[in-house]
Amino acid sequence: MTTPKHNDDALYDEVHRLVTDVLQSCSASAADRLSAFLADGGDDAERCYTAYMHETHALRSAGSEASQLLPPTSPRARQAGNGLRPSSAKRFYAAGLATSAAILATAAWIWDSQEPEVKTSAGAEVAHTDAASIATLVRTSQVVWRTGEEPLPDLSRLLPGEDIRIDSGQVEILFDTGVELVITGRADAAIESGMRVVGKLGTFSARVSERGRGFTLETPATDVIDLGTEFGVEIDSSGGTKVAVFQGEVDLRSDRRQEGRSASEGSGRQPERLRVGEAVQIDAAGERRRLISIASDDFPTHGFNRNTHDLRPVLFSAVRDNLRSAASKKFYRVVHGGLFDDSRAYVDRNHEWNGLDSHGLPAPLRGADYVMPFNDDKFATDFELTLEMAGPCTLYIFFNNNMSTPDWLVANFQDTGIDLGLDEAYGRYSGDASLATGGGMSIDDTFSVWARVIDRAGEVRLGGVDKPANKDAGWSMYGIAATPAIATLASRQ
User: Fold this and answer.
1) Total-model pTM
2) What is the per-residue pLDDT across 67-98, written as a single tens digit (0 to 9) for each?
3) How far apart are CA 332 and CA 348, in angstroms?
């Protein structure tokens, strides 16, 4: 695993990401990733982990007692953490804490300390929390608070009815119900409860565990009702709303106030369902249109933009195909600076890119911009994909070695002689597959890396693929990546 080493903030962000993974998924693979991070990261990683656990434990232990000491009229009664930062934490980390069993035990302790579960009005099971506070403002990044708003420190506890109004920057909130919400840009939101937030303006990225199923983000155009997933919402100044689903499913209830019904009651009509890889834009008048491609920077989420501080412009301006009509909900995801081992490969699958051995991905590809296409497009005939390149770069195509090389690839790209691996997730075409962590682990298919130098901004057209001659061989859609460096791959290092 690659461990950030350039500053404490990067380490602290990575610790938070990995610990949140464990607590929300309670999976052995998530615990293994945290263990590997701590084992590989040395003293700095251990120190940041210790500080993080200090803060979390202090926050949890304090509960809401401190908020109850504030005057009842105070609109911002809250409990902040003990303020430990990585630079001031005392190093007492014990090696045994890094094991998967210990981490999973920590998750179990936190969950077991909750009170018995109850049903919400949406039918979801959530844990009771204390009545005084419902969430923690975990992190802020370059936040400029709206004029007249009281700045909130990291680790503030939040109350029902709390408003978040910022002119710029990013706020990350972790609800006691297991919902992680990132609010970005000029934004205005009201936290009604642990299961409902009213968004009025800004970008919202939510990652919801099964405990938070039923979490609702209300926008001027629609209610976005989570079904256990990861999704993004953007609300503009007119009330127009973009919704994109990155994992799982959401329901949209846009007619919630018709016939005098409240938002919670709805109108009796069936909600519109969006599944993974689907998105829609709803304007203030309720008209819908397709979102063809979405950049990861547009919806900063738990799984993206955590390990990169690259401020360069994106290399892919847009992506479009010749298959889908304006009524389609499918979108391409463009990931800025996000290509590393275990990066998700497709919009409609959970397969991951990996290097073929423990060295991981070839160095020139690490941190590349990449496009997540649809693996199902491998079945399409007369397929054409158009990439709008923003400027000079090296464009790469990862092509499945089970398939014959198409003419469009041979004519326009050069085979670098380097191969990558695809780690396939469980699915309808890969029922016995499972994901592993790290380069060289659980490689199910190999892909040759083809390169082309792009000397200026403009369009590049790619074609389709043919089924392999061997009908028993599996095959997958090609991958797409780009780096700003004009180079070819000479080695794995």
Assistant:
1) 0.61
2) 333 333 334 433 433 332 222 222 122 222 33
3) 10
